[in-house]
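dude i think i finally got it to work??
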Amino acid sequence: MLMATPLDSPRPDLGSLRIQDGQRSKSGMGKRLVYASIPVLIFAAIVATAFGLRNQKPVVEVATVAKPEAGGPQTALNASGYVTPRRRATIAAKITGRVTGVFFDEGTRVKEGQLLSTLDDSDYKRALDSAKADRDASQAAIADLEVQLRNAEIQLKRAQQLRESGIQTQEALDNTRTTADSLRAKIALTKQQVAAAESRIAVAQQAVDNCVIRAPFPGIVVSKDAQVGEMVSPNSAGGGFTRTGIATIVDMKSNEIEVDVNESYIAKVREGQQVKATLDAFPDAPYDAKVRTVIPTADRQKATVKVRISFLKLDDKILPDMGVRVAFLEEEKPVAVKKGAEKAPQAVAYIPKSAVRSDSHASFVYLFREGKVERRAVSLGTDRGTEVAVLAGVTPGDSIVVRGPESLHDGDKVEIRQ
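look at this
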C-alpha cells in the first residue's frame, strides 16, 4: 500500500490575489478624477449662490412726499404718541374676600357711586350682630342698675333721717351711702361699655360696607378683572390665584395726548402752543389741540421730554391708547421784506429725514418708479423734527425710499416691504 507524503498535499494558490496592472491604473485614475472634481463643484456652488444673490431684489420702504400746508401757521415740529386719560383707575377692594356679585361689563357707562360688585360679607355681618348684642346687653344692665340706684337713694335718705334722730348709727349711714355711690359708678362704667360697643359696631359696619365696591367717578368700564366666585385682595394676600382688581374705569372726558419730544427740539414747544392731532385710526379727520404742559424733567436713557396735549373738543372716536401723530404749529409772524431783497425760497414738499442720503457732493433721495429706484438730488430747507423741508428736487405725490439697504444704487430693481 502506498502512503501519501506531506509533499503531495495541495498548496494555496496566491497568484489569484495578484492585482493586474490594468486594474491598478483604472482604480487610481478614478480616485484622481473624484479629487479633481471637488474644487470644480465648490466653485460652481459659489457661482450659483452669487448669481442667486445678485438676482435677489433689495427690499425697501417707501412713502409719499407730503404737500406743504397752504397758508396758516406752519409746522414747527412733528411727533407721535398715544391718547392717555388723566383719570384712569383700577378699582380694587379694601379687604380680602370672595366675589358674590358683578354688576357691570366692558363698555358699561357708570356714574359716581354706582354699585359695581359685592363681596361675601357673612362673617362681617356676624361680627356686626355680635357688637350690637353687646351694646344691647350693656344698655339693659344700665336700666337694672338705675332701678337699684333709686332704691339705694331712698334707703340713704331714710338712714340720714334716722341718724339725725339718733336711732341709727353712723356706720349704717355710711354703708347706705357707699351702696348708692357704687351703683352710680357701675352705671357710669356700663355707659362706657355701651360707647365701646358702639365703636365696635361702627368698625363692623365699615367692614360690611367694604364688601360693596362702587365707582369713584363717572366713566366707562374698559376692563372686567374679576368674576363671581373668585378671591380678590388689595395685595394678593391669598396667593397667586387672588385677583387684585375688580374693574378698570376711564373718564373719557379726561382724554389727552402724551408724546415724547427729543430734547434737541424741545425749545420749539411751549405751553398753550397750537397743535394739529391726527389719530392713526382716522387719518382724514385731524383735531385741534394745544399744549397743556411740558413735564419739567427729561428721560436720560431716551433723551426725550414728555409733553401733554389737550384736545379742544372731544368725541366718541377718541379712545385711550390710540396712536396719534401731532404737529406743533408755529406762530404766524409777518416778515418784513426790504425793497429790492429777494424773497426767501419756499418749501415745495416735506419728506421724512430718514429718506435723505448724502455723499461728498450733495444730498439726494431715491425715487421709486416702476419697480426701480432713481437717484434725485435735493435742496433742503428747515428741519422740523422727523421731517425736513425740500426746496427743490421732488414734487408732492412722489414715492421716495425712506428705508433701504446702504448699498442701493441708481437704477436698482427693488421690492416694496408690505
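The first strand starts at residue 59 and ends at 64.
im so relieved honestly
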